[in-house]
Amino acid sequence: MKNLTVLLVAILLIFMTCDKTETIPGFVGNPIYLAPVIETSEDTLACTYAWSFSDKPDGSNMDILSFQPNSRSFNVSFVPDIPGEYTVAYNIVGPDGKTKDKQDLLCEVIEDTTSAAPIQEDEYALSEEALNAPLPVYEDTKTTTMKPAYTPPPPPKQTYPRPRLDRGKNIPKISGNYTIQISSWKTYAGAERAVSLLSSLGLDLYIQKAYFNETGENWYRVRTGNFDSRATARQTMNNLKAKLPHEQLWLDFVREDQ
């Protein structure tokens, strides 16, 4: 009987250990990088993501606006403001509107008492899965300037600013012809995947390379339509916003290829 009791206790401990969520360590003022656990890349095709804090230490000001680049990205980061346990939840919703996966990630944050020099963001060892995951970068998010890894983020804004109209004046335009910009990507491969995900909407999509003299960078912009009336273009854009509520759509002149 005694041996049977010992065996049952051992089995219970094994189940408890297997079910325990792995803790992600972190330091106050240092970014913590997170990504959902998926089996294959096909599992995330045309999916949307939602990150949130289901629990945090008393006195913490973290909320969904603290996630970078935003709470709807595949992989995110946040900079904890006080030590303690942060429980970060994510939901993966498929194109049919049904939840495909949801999970809580536990982050254990302590004060950084070391005197080592700060590690720059571009030296952070991301997983291969996170490195291969494309991230949409909109021109109005102002992410082209890299910041030191341990610099706290600016106060969160409730709305995205309008695109800077003074940028890209060097790109020749076709006056009188308008188009709708959906997103802007740092790589052509990222823009191609965006077009693939939007193909079911039946839009006349195209990718246009744009070189910005102001920053010396190339961007690959996903656009749709060629309108000879600004009013018609704006009406089409407003209708499209209902289908793409999470995109920052805006009007521009049709630009010449570069």
Provide structural commentary:
The protein is of the alpha+beta class and 258 residues long. The protein folds into two domains: 112 residues, Sandwich (Immunoglobulin-like), CATH 2.60.40.10; 83 residues, 2-Layer Sandwich (Alpha-Beta Plaits). Helix content is 19%, strand content 31%. Strands 1-6-5-3 form a four-stranded mixed beta sheet, with no helix packed on it. The longest helix has 18 residues. About 14% of the residues have low confidence.
Q: Tell me the total number of β-strands.
A: 10
The CATH topology label of the largest domain is Immunoglobulin-like
Helix content range: 10-25%
Q: Order of helices and strands, N to C?
A: HEEEEEEHEHEEHE
Cα shape = elongated
CATH level 4 superfamily of the largest domain: Immunoglobulins
Second CATH tier, the architecture of the largest domain:
Sandwich
What's the end-to-end separation, in Å?
81 Å
Structural class, please? alpha+beta
The total count of helices amounts to 4
| Percent of residues in beta strands | 25-35%
Enumerate the spans where pLDDT stays under 50 for 5 or more consecutive residues. Answer: 9-20, 116-124, 137-144, 158-163
Question: Biggest β-sheet, characterized?
Answer: 4 strands, mixed
Oligomer: single chain
**Mean pLDDT level:** 77
Strand order of the largest sheet: 1-6-5-3
Reading off the top of the CATH hierarchy, the class of the largest domain is best stated as Mainly Beta
Write the layout of secondary structure elements.
Blueprint: H1 2-19, E1 23-27, E2 32-34, E3 48-55, E4 76-78, E5 84-93, E6 99-110, H2 128-132, E7 173-185, H3 188-198, E8 205-212, E9 217-227, H4 230-243, E10 250-255
Parallel strand pairs: 1-6
Antiparallel strand pairs: 2-4, 3-5, 5-6, 7-9, 7-10, 8-9
